Amino acid sequence: MSGRLLHVGSAVVDYVYRIDALPAPGTEKTASSYAQVAGGGFNMMVAASRTGMKVAFGGQLGSGPNGDFLRAAFAAEDIATLTPPSPVIDSGNCVAMISGDAERTFVSWPGAESMLNLDMMASVRVAPGDWVFASGYTLSYPGSRDALADWIEALPAEIPFVFDPTPVISDIPRAILDRVLARTSWLSCNTAEAVQIAGAGDVEAIAAGLLSNHCPSADGVIIRAGAKGCFVRLADGSRQAVPSFKVAAVDTNGAGDTHIGAFVSALSRGVPPFEAASYANAAAALSVTRHGGSSAPTDQEIQTFLSHDDRMTTVHGREQEA
Fold first, then answer.
1. The Carbohydrate kinase PfkB domain covers which part of the protein (predicted)?
2. What distance in Å separates the CA atoms of residue 268 and residue 200, rounded to the nearest whole number?
3. Where are the beta strands (DSSP E) in 126-238?
4. First CA to last CA distance, the chain
5. Do residues 173 and 196 make contact, with C-beta atoms less than 8 angstroms apart?
6. I want to staple 3 with a disulfide (CB 3.0 to 4.6 A). Which of 62, 65, 97, 130 is the partner?
């Protein structure tokens, strides 16, 4: 593979509690399990790395125990870190509560990843063949959004830029969001985020509006729709609903990140977009059958899954696709 994925988003430490159901206000629950894991953008990077793409992180990590934990996690997955640690603050964290129906609820605290400037990013240099990714989380932080938007706009025109607005899209100033969308080569978002950008309508109309009115230089958009799979529309007008794979979900945390990482990895090695979307659907389906946010499968696991004749049959348990 000729290039790298340069991730200029954010990574945090997740504190994951598994509970039967969310506690009512003023009450307490005892978790059945607890884990400390790398999260945030780490999940997307792991998905790209495990499916064959070389990955480097160009965001900001902290100088305390959370930052040390994340650096060790990056090293374990052979993901390079390109920027020096923040000298003033640790990396942030997120409390994730996973309920018995595989849904998740989050409370997060931003740390070093929320403070980014162009001087910090001086060591993040793109090269021919690279792909760049950013998420809405970094753009939602007042201490990083302007520098990151400036850096994205300055990317060479031939460098593909992939953007995921994420559920915090409402926290991104519209002027910043519009600047980033205008430079986006591939937009990957869920249905709710697509509606927030382009307005309500059926998925075909929303996708067309995203390309014509918001991402004029994009090669395409992909709208993730949970158990329904995803919808892809290309700049040439071709479009396709790509069906999901039915699996028994145990943990949907990180499934969207897995989808994006696998999709970009497939595109980077020349897989056609509709086929890449099916590959990403399979990666996400496998990830939700495993506990943990960074549960992305390898390329070999995805290929094996896709080769099974019975892959579309329903298995016992809750059916879910990210």
1. 6-295
2. 31
3. 131-135, 161-164, 186-190, 220-224, 230-234
4. 27
5. no
6. 130
